[in-house]
Amino acid sequence: MNPFRRKHGSARGLAMITWVYVLWSLLPVLVAVRISFNSGKSRSSFQAPSFRWYWGDPVSSVWHDDSLHTAMLNTLQLAALCMLIATPLGVAMAIGLHRWRGKVSNAANGLMLVPIVTPEIVFGVALFLVFTQMYTGVPSGMSRQLIGHITFTLSFVVVIVRGRLQAIGAQYEEAARDLGATRLQAIRLVLLPLLAPAIFASVMVVFATSVDDFVISSFLTTGASTDTVPVKIYSAARGSSTPAVNALATVMLVFTLLAVALAGLAMKRMNKKSGDAAAGAAGGLAGLSG
Predict the structure, then answer these.
(1) pLDDT tens profile 83-93
(2) What is the pLDDT of residues 27-49, one digit of tens each?
(3) pTM of the entire predicted model
(4) Are the CB atoms for 267 and 251 separated by under 8 Å?
(5) Residues in CB range of 196: below 8 A, 6 or more apart
(6) How would residue 80 be classed by pLDDT, with cut points 50, 70 and 90?
(7) Which domains does the chain have, with CATH numbers?
């Protein structure tokens, strides 16, 4: 048998398996989205399509229900603040841990993985006990939820950025120092542009993790005023909920997809404008050496 044909057939088989998995994983999401367009109150069967649960119902639709508005705003606010705080903190910690040498640094690197490998239910209970028994001065509600989200997502940023740092190596920064750049200039002009893909990936991971988080948010919530979308959906699903919950989840899904798409376009435009990160860094260093 022709080896090329055998390889081609194997690749097609793997591609088919991948597409089957993607379609299967998307099926529950598509079903939930379709039910959000039901004209009746059923959440278990398809009904005639309608926008009743988006804006048509004067009481229970996403557009008119204040509790749904609050949950959505809380979720987006938490995710935005978590991105703005956890990402730069994680990048700084990754650079510091990458340069730190010694036995203590190995222990610190291991501790950074604890939030990732710890079951989230254990992490949520631990945070709840910390805030109720030790740091009681931290305002309850949104402030505690934000600290919890940052604590949980920080490790993801460190792991992603450290992986990129390992791949880059130290040669670019050393070349910058040889050309006369200070340590801060080398980081700003060389290292950060090279880390841009990892930083972008970290922002997306932090945003998705914060938006999707249920355990930490539920343990640290103080009631309806601080409920997030996952907590609201869970609470509504336990009672006699309507497809308005599905509509709320669909709106959040659209927000998330739009955020990812806009971030991807911004990243693409930035890459087109600046060209390759290393080339741009070299140009900046040439200006310094001149």
Answers:
(1) 999 999 999 98
(2) 888 988 998 898 888 877 888 88
(3) 0.79
(4) no
(5) 267, 270, 277
(6) very high
(7) 62-289 (1.10.3720.10)
Cα(232)–Cα(106) distance, rounded to whole angstroms? 41
Residue 35 burial class via C-beta count within 10 angstroms: exposed 0-12, middle 13-18, buried 19 and up: buried
Q: Please give the Cα distance from 155 to 93 (Å, whole number).
A: 9
Give the pLDDT band (50/70/90) at residue 276: low
Cβ atoms of 252 and 244 closer than 8 Å = no
| C-alpha distance across the termini of the chain, in Å | 62
Token duo for residue 118: 């710890």
Kindly give the residue spans of alpha helices, DSSP state H, lying in the chain: 3-35, 66-99, 103-111, 114-117, 120-133, 142-168, 171-178, 183-186, 192-212, 215-220, 229-238, 244-274, 277-289
